[in-house]
Specification:
Elements lengths: L1 E2 H5 L10 H4 L12 H4 L4 H8 L5 E4 L6 H11 L3 E6 L5 H18 L3 E6 L6 H12 L3 E7 L3 H4 L2 H5 L2 E4 L5 H13 L9 E4 L1 H11 L3 H13 L12 E4 L1 H7 L12 H15 L3 H13 L4 H16 L5 H16 L5 H13 L8 H11 L11 H8 L37 H20 L16 E2 L8 H4 L5 H8 L11 H11 L18 E2 L4 H11 L4 H14 L6 E5 L5 H9 L4 E6 L2 H10 L10 E4 L11 H8 L4 E6 L6 H11 L3 E12 L17 H13 L11 H10 L3 E13 L3 H7 L6 H26 L4 E14 L2
Helix pairs in contact: 10-11, 10-12, 11-12, 11-13, 12-13, 14-15, 14-16, 15-18, 16-17, 16-18, 17-18, 19-24, 26-27, 30-32, 31-34, 33-34
């Protein structure tokens, strides 16, 4: 067994370590690069500083700082720190390490952190031996690997660890590494007058390929070979020109590594060429794989998947062709079998495409969200028909003409929900009219009971309770209480495309955005982190979501779709008192940081109570600030202390304002707290484009036209800042403020129950500017008749109330 001093101890006097070893950072502040996992406010940095590290796996190319990061952790932790090299350590050393860790826990209640370099080199038996000790907390594992852990490391270990991907260092990072070595008097070359030409530094950086060790090794050779003997006297001038730099480093060659990520990049390019119907590109990538010695069985496997995933029912024969080619290849073998590979690839690259099979992920998303019962008429009638009526009412399709009958097959809660939408390509294009016609007949057959389903078109009619001031934004005037109501009284929200759940599920499984409408192109970015599922956290979020209306959840989906929040992002949620966006931010950025701004102390207290069941590192940081909006006052020092110097990658706010100037002010307030390339997203109700009360009246009601004229005049007031804006005017105002924003309107339908209080508020000509406008247009008698008509409509039950919400996504470029 080796201890922390074996790998991380300082060298003894007279030892001569390479420059790369001497320049290893000793603390977090010396660490260069990898800001996405170790930058200010990131989860890993906070865990190291708090000495609350859980099992982690560092994955990345050589020279990106995996072992260095373990060294930094060793210098920060109070736990017993043990190191092993997977190449050198035998079974006995592993057992000794586990025994020592068990003793530390039993005798001193002290954790043991075990760092394993090249963890992928361990065989399965060695990894399995460590698993129970990681699971019971005796050992906190830190693994370092250059191979993708999802392929090379025991899945049970990965599921119990957070995975952090270290990227190749940027050119600026490498320059910082080189300059630090030249300036450091203790470990580098600061004792001598070393001058490095800019062209020489550029060459070292460009050929280092993001590897800090490579540039330090080259710098060491260039410096120390430029004098007759080493070390020279202090202050000696050493000049490094381009020629010296070229002699000190050789260009690296990237090879096709069948066991590495490049292997998966090439097959990915091949499949995407098939999907994009580019036969030339498909043949090129196919030839490249065969020339590199790729397993033909692996290629056929991916084509079999593509035949159903990307071609699908647009050409049902595709799966048959690929399967036949695969069987023929097994009989023929290479080299002639290349014809069968080519035949299958060309067929897939030229046939029509449909990914309608992704409807499965729509259904899967519903299964995860809904807890529904099997309809009684679909249950097994062989066992319980007599006692419980199971199977009663089922219509046997083969007893009807065309062997089909319209009846309900989905659970009551999902009636009308669309999962499968046939494309217009190939075979699907031919069956599309019949599928849609049957669906319409099916919905019509069960539409008598409207409470059994949410939408006759298959989308969601977002249900929810309308708060006391729900419609003040649409019906209030421009001054007095009306304006404040417009700013603060919105409690319902938006709807989105009914396919959003499918796109979310597809993204989860494939980390792609195919088939998803993107209104704003803020990149989600590469997946750089991973956390195992947390059952306590998942149950906690389900409890929270259960109290939210579907309209609010749909608005949340829209805002996060526009933000493209990644797992490692630092997210600031404004007006977070209700927790709607805050909890979703924690789910979407588990390795980042979530901070919430609350308008009231009671909101902060409520959120903190909800968050008590979360691990301390998963809890959001909460602050109370005026209005719950980003601070922009005079006390800059106090505001900087509020966020501990952190800048945010994503800033979100629901109902940020009710006027163009208010929306602009929100984005202006975000600027001081936005990181480079940050994105801010907000929503705002647009009352002038929303539903009018006159639309509730029947078309044959003579009051309808009169009230409609009054409403048109009221909402068309160009001087009222609540009504005189739309997406074009808002985007123009933001552009004038230097903010590149994309704005779009979303229409929401909510099942609203109109109350007597609502009607009285709307028709009060003394307190409601809307009521005063209608009174002026139609008179007292007609206004009373209007109120009576609304009461009669309200007595029938909830109405489909439509809203318009503007969602703006603005980027803050570096």
């Amino acid at each position: 067994m080796s201890t922390a001093t074996d790998l991380f101890s300082a060298p003894g006097k007279g030892s001569r370590e390479p420059l790369a070893a001497r320049m290893r950072p000793r603390k977090l502040d010396e660490y260069i690069g990898q800001d996405h996992i170790i930058g200010p406010g990131r989860l890993l940095r906070r865990a190291i500083q708090a000495d609350q590290l859980t099992s982690v796996i560092f994955y990345g190319p050589p020279g990106t700082g995996k072992t260095t990061l373990a060294r930094v952790i060793a210098n920060h932790t109070k736990s017993n720190f043990v190191t092993l090299n997977a190449v050198l350590a035998g079974v006995q050393q592993i057992r000794d390490s586990i025994a020592a860790a068990d003793d530390q826990r039993k005798l001193y209640d002290r954790r043991t952190i075990l760092f394993v370099d090249e963890v992928h080199r361990w065989n399965r038996a060695q990894q399995d031996a460590l698993l129970p000790w990681v699971e019971n907390g005796t050992i906190i594992l830190i693994g370092a690997t250059t191979e993708n852990p999802f392929f090379e490391v025991n899945k049970a270990l990965v599921s119990r660890s957070r995975v952090f991907q270290l990227k190749q260092l940027t050119e600026n990072d490498l320059r910082e590494v080189a300059n630090a070595a030249l300036a450091d008097r203790e470990r580098g070359y600061g004792r001598w007058n070393v001058t490095l030409e800019s062209a020489a530094l550029d060459h070292l950086v460009s050929t280092a390929s993001g590897d800090a060790r490579s540039i330090l090794n080259a710098l060491e050779l260039a410096v120390e070979s430029s004098v007759p003997f080493w070390p020279p006297a202090d202050g000696t001038a050493i000049h490094i020109d381009l020629k010296t730099a070229e002699e000190s480093i050789q260009q690296k060659v990237v090879l096709y590594d069948r066991d590495g990520d490049y292997h998966y990049d090439v097959i990915s390019a091949f499949i995407k060429s098939l999907r994009g119907r580019d036969p030339d590109a498909a043949l090129y990538w196919l030839a490249r794989m065969i020339a590199a010695g790729e397993d033909p069985g692996f290629i056929f496997r991916r084509m079999l998947i593509s035949a159903c995933e990307d071609t699908g029912l647009a050409d049902p024969n595709a799966i048959t062709v690929v399967e036949s080619c695969a069987r023929a290849f097994d009989r023929v073998g290479l080299p002639e079998g290349r014809f069968h590979l080519t035949h299958a690839a060309l067929y897939l690259a030229t046939c029509p495409k449909s990914n309608s099979a992704m409807a499965f992920f729509d259904a899967l998303a519903s299964v995860e969200k809904e807890d529904t019962e099997v309809p009684n008429h679909l249950r097994d009638g062989n066992r319980d028909a007599e006692g419980f009526g199971h199977g009663q009412g089922y219509a046997y399709p083969h007893s009807y003409r065309d062997h089909w009958v319209a009846q309900q097959y989905l659970p009551d809660e999902l009636v009308g929900r669309l999962f499968y939408i046939p494309s217009e390509q190939g075979y699907e294009g031919r069956i599309r009219p019949e599928v849609l016609n049957r669906r319409e007949l099916q919905i019509a057959a069960i539409s008598d009971d409207m409470d059994n389903f949410e939408s006759s078109a298959g989308g969601n009619v977002a249900g929810g309770t309308a708060g006391d001031g729900t419609h003040r934004a649409g019906l209030a005037g421009s001054s007095g209480a009306g304006s404040s109501g417009a700013e603060g009284a919105v409690q319902a929200s938006t709807g989105t495309d009914s396919r959003a759940p499918a796109a979310a599920a597809y993204d989860k499984f494939y980390f792609g955005m195919e088939g998803k409408k993107k209104l704003f192109s803020a990149p989600r970015g590469e997946i750089l982190t991973f956390s195992p599922g947390n059952r306590g956290r998942d149950e906690w979020t389900l409890r929270l979501d259960s109290g939210k209306t579907k309209a609010l959840l749909e608005l949340r989906t829209v805002l996060f779709d526009q933000s493209r929040t990644a797992r490692h992002h630092r997210v600031l949620v404004c007006r977070a008192d209700d927790g709607l966006l805050l909890w979703e931010a924690i789910r979407q950025a588990p390795e980042g940081l979530t901070t919430g701004l609350c308008a009231h102390p009671r909101g902060k207290d409520m959120l903190e109570r909800y968050a008590e069941s979360l691990d301390s590192l998963d809890r959001p940081l909460l602050h109370v600030v005026p209005g719950g909006m980003p601070p922009g006052g005079q006390d800059t020092a106090k505001e900087t202390e509020l966020f501990e110097g952190v800048r945010f990658d994503r800033i979100l706010c629901r109902d940020a304002a009710a006027t163009t100037e208010g929306i602009r002010a929100f984005f202006d307030s975000c600027k001081p707290w936005a990181a480079d390339n940050a994105v801010a997203v907000c929503s705002a109700r647009n009352p002038s484009r929303g539903m009018r009360l006159s639309s509730l009246l029947g078309k044959d009601n003579p009051l309808r036209a009169e009230i409609q004229d009054a409403e048109n005049a009221f909402f068309a007031d160009p001087e009222n800042p609540l009504f005189n804006w739309n997406k074009e005017t808002v985007r123009t105002a933001l552009l004038q403020a230097g903010i590149d924003a994309n704005c779009d309107h979303f229409h929401i339908t909510e099942a609203k129950r109109i109350t007597e209080i609502d009607i009285a508020r709307w028709t009060d000509s003394e307190k409601s500017p809307y009521g005063a406008a209608v009174l002026a247009a139609v008179g007292t008698i007609r206004l009373g008749a209007f109120a009576a008509a609304l009461r009669e409509i309200a007595s029938r039950g909830p109405v489909a109330w439509e809203y318009d919400v503007l969602v703006c996504a603005g980027s803050f470029n570096a």
